[in-house]
Amino acid sequence: MLFQFGFYSSLLLITFSQGILYSILLLRKGSKSGDKSNYWLSVFILVCSLYIAPWMLGFAGWYDNQPYRDILFYVPFQQLYLFGPLIYFYTQSLLNPNFRLTKMASLHFLPAVIFLLWNLWIWVYDYFIVNCNYFYADGTDKDFDAWYQYSGFGSMVLYLVLSIRYYNIYRVLIFQVTSFAESILFDWIKKYLISFLILTLLPIAFDVLAYFLPEIRTYAGSWWYFLAFSVVMYYIAITAYANPVISKIHFRLSPFDSGPVVLLSESNVRESENIIEIEADIIKKEITPDLKEWILKMEFLLKEEELYKNPELTLSDVAKRLSINISITSKVVNQGFGLNFNDLINQYRTEAVVKCLEQGLHKNTTLLGIAFDCGFNSKATFNRAFKKHTGKSPKDYIADL
């Protein structure tokens, strides 16, 4: 097979081959762990690798030699309509164990399928009907047509917005239903969304740069864009492979409106009883007699039975202890206490730590040990919660005793 090694082709070959390698590794990791999010990212990295292939192979001499030139022309290496849906579904599968690709969700791939069929028709027409390069008479690769590049860019922007919105809803949800929200915010998700944002902004950045350096618009100048793209792709691949993100919160939501989130459980509970209004204002409203009764019962569980000491306490756990559904429990927390569930439990944990400090227990044991005994699961979470509820850091509070 023809491949002319040079500075331009060799550097892209390194990132291309690494992309293919990590695509295989992620596929293998998903098969072993059962985590389907790895499958989505595996395909995404593969599509990214194919995206840089025309420039890598072009500098390797393919555009100047047959049949390699026709391979570059008739094989649609740049699948721009796949980038967005893949990263969007990766986000969902990463954050929501309940995510499944439904028939309706499959429609997100319709533009990519249409583009593939269009390229198939071009190949069939040129090779088997007119027996000449009718569609490629001008000698330019259809992958780089302006309409396709701009519409592909628009698709990436749209799905980036949807992915960010999905993550933001997840952030609000976990503060409503868990007492350990900060430990499952997953910094990796923010990093890869920022990385995808960089991939999306790279064309704009190079267009701006081209106003000052016109040579950027040449074939050789464009190589720098593909190198930058491949470096970001490589970063996503290696960090994703090494990052274990496991979400345990099953839910269902509509990505296109601000409606309620449905928590999904294995029990035979009616769906209406598992609805969480995450967009609702968390303020103390007029308390009905029924709601007041549940507030008192919840206060008893938290104060007398010290449920807050469970570092993995969830809204569902409290609902089971109260023998009511999650929807009512959520209203008790939001309307009765004027807080989300995470802040409410951390408030009780902080009060327990303060009580221990006032008793002088910190003189005989470590501050972190006290925090863990009171239900906190990390030093960072403890410090933030303590400062939020007391207005002082733990060390400053001890100094003022």
From TrEMBL:
Q: Where is the HTH araC/xylS-type domain?
A: 304-400
Q: Span of the secretion signal? A: none
Q: Which GO terms describe its molecular function?
A: DNA-binding transcription factor activity; sequence-specific DNA binding
Listed InterPro entries: Homeodomain-like_sf, HTH_AraC
List all membrane-crossing ranges: 6-27, 39-59, 71-89, 109-128, 148-167, 192-211, 223-242
Q: Which Pfam families match?
A: HTH_18
From which domain of life does this come?
Bacteria
Key words, A-Z: DNA-binding, Membrane, Transcription, Transcription regulation, Transmembrane, Transmembrane helix
Annotated protein name in UniProt: AraC family transcriptional regulator
